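seq:
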Amino acid sequence: MKKIVVLSGAGISAESGIKTFRDSDGLWENYPVEEVATYDSWYVYGRKALMLDFYNQRRRDLKTREPNLAHKIVAELEKEYEVTVATQNIDDLHERAGSTRIIHLHGELTKARGEYSDYYSAKDIGYNDINLGDKDSGGEQLRPHIVWFGEAVPELEKAAAATQKADIMIIIGTSLAVYPAAGLVHYARSGAEIYLIDPKDVASSARFTHIKEKATVGMQKLKEILMKK
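struct:
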């Protein structure tokens, strides 16, 4: 069975109504990145209440969203291929669409862990809030299970290994501007087919077939291409 690795970004979830950070009406417009998504903001400057509120809002919003056709087509590919999804997104829409092998590069909104605990100690919290004073079993304040700016990306190595083995790489809804995740394209082996689905021009030295459509339309087109092979 041929192997596919899917690298997904904010553009795939935008069609489910989840706001992206970088668009003109995105989340960064209302929340400075240095206040809600950095290591220093939590551990150095103590903006814990602000950060918890920000991610609590994201979690409540996620509860109301549904996977779109692009998520569902990615899941359907498992009927014919061995598919690994490496996503930059912190939502659970790939899971809810039916994908079974998912690497969350930037963490998961529906999990939490103690603020000084190991990354892999995170537990599911569903769509519930995290409040100041909420502790893990060891007595540590719970924090969102998110990879903030200034933190390592623990799952990157696993995603790179999957990319190296893939016969086909599909990049959906990302402009390849967010590193280190964007660097995964350079791990694709020389004979691999690479498809990039994004409505905007993408500046990259990587070689790929650009399907210049939004995620849902692009994945329908790519599905047709793959069915012909």
